[in-house]
């Protein structure tokens, strides 16, 4: 597989291979870099509804990764490697002030503002034709707002042809183009002041007549420019050129740098910034759910606006002829049951002929449903329901309870927050595809792949308690027993 973009390690490239209908999407794109635990081929054989859920999740992961291969001529995910994933083989060379860090999932390049703060390669873009450059940028908390910092540039012999940068004079982000003799400068500026320590997505577009600056996927500045000259002296991450010498070294972090040999549209910039992913994949309470399986060649047509139970109900309705409003009304008294309704019907054996109760944790198979009843403990939420992707096996060493065995279960679900805490202890071995960082607002919600811990009684093998993630404390888990919150599972048959 070639060119699948991997912003912040969210995208498990190989995981897509097992889903045949996705082949068209990933064709011709580059190799994705992924968190290893999610990077496992998975081919649901006997659970068609798992395949449908899997496809929805994987398309949302494509969107979260900003998947847009058309016209990509350079792509540096900067996930601990200098590689260019566009297929055009322009790996960057790091200066002495550039280091790999993992402020968030997948990792990024950190730059210390010194003369060695750069990563560079030969010229990538034909700057006589329309082009787009983009990057995630974060000024260090120690950076100075009265210093100019350039995130991305491509140079001529005297000066950078374009600069995607922080402009100290304007106090904000800018996309600029210059004449070859550096006598003329045209700027498109962001609408609001830049903030230290905040990840921001920048995209600069030159369409041949105008330049445009997009901030976090939204157009904020434009200016007329027909300047056109070939910048053949190299492509830079973290610096620019002025008076024939390097300048503007970056102080902060840069991630997922891209170069497109065409002018992206506003909708396309929304995709590469993750803005579309946040619009299409939404954990929704209090509004009618809407889940749309889109077309294979257009990830933006895949939409999941749902809560946990409405997502899984719509997966079943989408997959099986028997899963009708009449069926759910007959056996669950609702066209879209709540999580607690599922739990009760599974436990009581009243879910009808298409669900068979699974009592023991070790009997769980891919595609099985696990429903938790909050027992009235949580306002506006009856419980949680998940689909099993894989039982990873027993887990020990954290939050063990006498007489119980703990199992790590990889699940697909629809949630308001990812399972786990980014970077905490063994989270990396049990990750969540919606996780970006510990920074508020960065994580994705909605459908995704994560890990929960389910416990079995050693005496009976049946569910005894759960933890939300491998990071959930033992103290919290003391209150997540089946006495407090009943659990029941079922196989779809
Ligand atoms: Ca990265």
Automatic annotation (TrEMBL):
<dbReference type="InterPro" id="IPR006311">
    <property type="entry name" value="TAT_signal"/>
</dbReference>
<feature type="domain" description="LamG-like jellyroll fold">
    <location>
        <begin position="129"/>
        <end position="267"/>
    </location>
</feature>
<protein>
    <submittedName>
        <fullName>LamG domain-containing protein</fullName>
    </submittedName>
</protein>
<keyword id="KW-1015">Disulfide bond</keyword>
<dbReference type="Pfam" id="PF13385">
    <property type="entry name" value="Laminin_G_3"/>
</dbReference>
<dbReference type="InterPro" id="IPR013320">
    <property type="entry name" value="ConA-like_dom_sf"/>
</dbReference>
<dbReference type="InterPro" id="IPR006558">
    <property type="entry name" value="LamG-like"/>
</dbReference>
<keyword id="KW-0732">Signal</keyword>
């Amino acid at each position: 597989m070639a060119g699948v973009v991997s912003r912040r390690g969210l995208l498990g490239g190989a995981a897509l291979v097992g889903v045949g209908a996705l082949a068209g999407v990933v064709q011709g794109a580059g190799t994705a870099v992924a968190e290893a635990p999610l990077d496992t081929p998975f081919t649901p054989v006997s659970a068609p509804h798992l395949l449908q859920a899997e496809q929805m999740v994987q398309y949302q992961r494509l969107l979260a990764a900003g998947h847009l291969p058309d016209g990509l001529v350079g792509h540096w995910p900067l996930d601990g490697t200098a590689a260019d994933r566009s297929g055009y083989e322009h790996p960057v060379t790091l200066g002495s002030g550039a280091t790999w860090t993992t402020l968030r999932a997948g990792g990024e390049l950190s730059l210390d503002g010194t003369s060695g703060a750069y990563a560079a390669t030969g010229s990538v873009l034909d700057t006589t034709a329309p082009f787009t450059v983009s990057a995630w940028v974060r000024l260090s908390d120690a950076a100075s707002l009265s210093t100019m910092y350039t995130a991305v540039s491509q140079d001529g012999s005297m000066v950078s042809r374009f600069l995607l940068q922080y402009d100290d004079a304007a106090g904000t982000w800018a996309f600029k183009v210059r004449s070859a003799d550096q006598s003329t400068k045209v700027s498109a500026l962001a609408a609001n002041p830049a903030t230290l320590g905040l990840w921001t997505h920048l995209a600069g577009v030159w369409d041949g007549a105008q330049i445009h600056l997009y901030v976090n996927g939204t157009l904020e500045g434009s200016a007329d420019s027909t300047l056109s000259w070939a910048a053949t002296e190299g492509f830079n991450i973290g610096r620019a050129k002025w008076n024939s010498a390097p300048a503007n070294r970056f102080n902060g972090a840069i991630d997922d740098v891209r170069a497109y040999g065409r002018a992206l549209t506003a909708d396309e910039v929304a995709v590469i910034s993750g803005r579309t992913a946040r619009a299409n994949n939404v954990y929704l309470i209090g509004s009618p759910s809407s889940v749309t399986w889109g077309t294979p060649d257009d990830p933006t047509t895949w939409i999941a606006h749902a809560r946990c139970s409405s997502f899984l109900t719509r997966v079943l309705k989408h997959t099986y002829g028997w899963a009708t409003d009449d069926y759910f009304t007959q056996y669950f008294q609702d066209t879209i049951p709540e999580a607690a309704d599922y739990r009760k019907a599974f436990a009581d054996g009243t879910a009808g002929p298409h669900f068979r109760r699974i009592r023991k944790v070790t009997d769980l198979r891919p595609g099985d449903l696990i429903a938790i009843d909050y027992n009235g403990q949580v306002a506006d939420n009856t419980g949680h329901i998940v689909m099993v992707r894989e039982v990873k096996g027993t887990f020990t060493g954290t939050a063990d309870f006498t007489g119980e065995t703990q199992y790590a279960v990889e699940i697909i679900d629809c949630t308001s927050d990812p399972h786990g805490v980014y970077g905490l202890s063994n989270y990396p071995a049990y990750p969540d595809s919606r996780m970006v960082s510990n920074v508020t607002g960065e994580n994705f919600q909605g459908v995704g792949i994560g890990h929960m811990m389910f416990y079995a009684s050693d005496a009976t093998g049946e569910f005894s308690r759960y933890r939300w993630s491998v990071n959930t404390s033992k103290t919290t888990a003391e209150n997540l027993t089946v006495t407090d919150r009943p659990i029941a599972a079922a196989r779809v048959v």
